[in-house]
Amino acid sequence: QLQLAESGGGLVQPGGSLRLSCAASGSPLSGYAVGWFRQAPGKEREGVSFISRSGLTMMYADSVKGRFTISGDGAKKMVYLQMNSLKREDTAVYFCAAGQPSTWSSSREYDYWGQGTQVTDCS
Fold it and tell me: What pLDDT score was predicted for residue 94?
């Protein structure tokens, strides 16, 4: 069974950068699309970014466009989220998820989830 594990979170000052990683084990990612989601305290989980199974289609929430970049390696054993120009409002737990969603930002349509990695503004 596919298992996902996020890493790369941490403390960051506004304007800083982090790269989050999502590692797959137990099964290759090649059969799945991958999404990044985040959840801030007291808020609903929201879709941040998405990469299709083919790796050819990427999607971003309006709030992160131009600042975040999603990518995957050739075998899609890893998916990354490069986050630049971080803002205070980016503070959240970030999750990667795998599935075959018809709507990329719908968390209900993903079958596999990691445990999350915390990104915290330290200003």
Answer: 98
